[in-house]
Amino acid sequence: MSAETASSSTAGPPAPVQRPTRRFTGRNNRGGRSVILSQPGGYSTEAVYRPPQPIRGGIPICFPKFFDEEFLEKHGFARTEVWILTHDTAFPPPTPDHAYVDFLLDHKPDDFQDWPNHKFELRLRVILGPTGDLTMTTRVKNVNTNGEPFAFKFAYHSYFSVSNILATRIEGLQGLDYRDYLNHNQFTEEADVLTFEEELDRAYLNTPDEIRIRDLELRRVITIHKDDSLPEIVVWNPWEDDAGLISDFGYEEYKEMICVEAAAMDSEITLNPNEEWTATQRLSAKEY
Ligand SMILES: O=P(O)(O)OC[C@H]1O[C@@H](O)[C@H](O)[C@@H](O)[C@@H]1O
């Protein structure tokens, strides 16, 4: 990953105060492979860039739901809505060698009729550090004026690029309970590293603050550092048969991707009026 920073722009809101002068491509400093799936820009070759289709790749934000929920689209509406650039003074300013940008989910109070009586603010700060670390902090605030709490779920649905799914290992999950969404059972992970040889769709519970994706062919480790607001890690690869059913996914792309999603999706977060919830994940990559 690499970025150059521009000096602050303060000419009238809304505006990012500091931004990369080049588009973030998720490539490492040695000119190597992208960290985030997969083609230029970090998306599937078949990604569709037209609402209401979510974009396949990158790091979609799942909010206020995860999976299919009655009345709401799968994984919630945040990943298919328009976000605007803003300048969020409530976030602490990062150090000068970090580039950052603030986003706000743009909506009017009555926009989401399927999720009524939930007045909320959803804000995201993305920070790119000088060594390529990518930090994302989300803030959700209940701005209901009717005194009502609301509840939600959340995930950073990160699509990581790997050289070969057969040579990919996830470290940090041993001993954890997980829900297996392919057979709707709960198990305990016995393996010291998670390997892949078929479709996999699981939510690991009560996970530690760091989870690593080891790419044995690239000799690269991507670390997901996350805070306590994100207790679950969802791991998903559709494998061949399921990938063939996903129209915005290249048929062979399952071989070079893995979704590892820091999430609060097993139980809902409840916010009272004026309460705020924040959740941070930081991604770093190292070759060895
Ligand atoms: O196709 P979508 O809506 O982007 O979802 C992709 C996958 O997202 C994962 O988070 C889920 O665990 C999977 O069950 C799901 O298939």
Descriptive overview:
With 288 residues, this protein is an all-beta fold. It has one domain (18-287): Beta-galactosidase, Chain A, domain 5 (Distorted Sandwich). It has 1 helix and 17 strands. The chain has one helix at 239-245, and strands at residues 61-62, 83-86, 99-105, 120-128, 134-142, 150-156, 159-161, 168-171, 177-180, 185-188, 193-194, 200-204, 210-215, 220-226, 232-237, 257-271, 276-287. A 9-stranded antiparallel beta sheet has the order 2-3-4-5-17-14-13-8-11, with no helix packed on it. It is globular. The model is unreliable at 1-31 (pLDDT under 50). Belongs to the glucose-6-phosphate 1-epimerase family. Keywords: Isomerase.
User: Biggest sheet: strands, sense, closure?
Assistant: 9 strands, antiparallel
Run of helices and strands: EEEEEEEEEEEEEEEHEE
* CATH level-two architecture: Distorted Sandwich
Total discrete domains: 1
Proportion of residues in helical segments: under 10%
> What hetero molecules are bound to the protein chains?
6-O-phosphono-beta-D-glucopyranose
* Number of E strands: 17
Low-confidence stretches: 1-31
The CATH class designation is Mainly Beta
Query: What structural class do you assign from the helix and strand content?
Result: mainly beta
Organism: Erythranthe guttata
EC number: 5.1.3.15
Enzyme class: isomerase
Protein name: glucose-6-phosphate 1-epimerase
Write the layout of secondary structure elements.
Elements: E1 61-62, E2 83-86, E3 99-105, E4 120-128, E5 134-142, E6 150-156, E7 159-161, E8 168-171, E9 177-180, E10 185-188, E11 193-194, E12 200-204, E13 210-215, E14 220-226, E15 232-237, H1 239-245, E16 257-271, E17 276-287
This protein binds 6-O-phosphono-beta-D-glucopyranose.
The site of 6-O-phosphono-beta-D-glucopyranose has 10 residues, from strand 15 and strand 16.
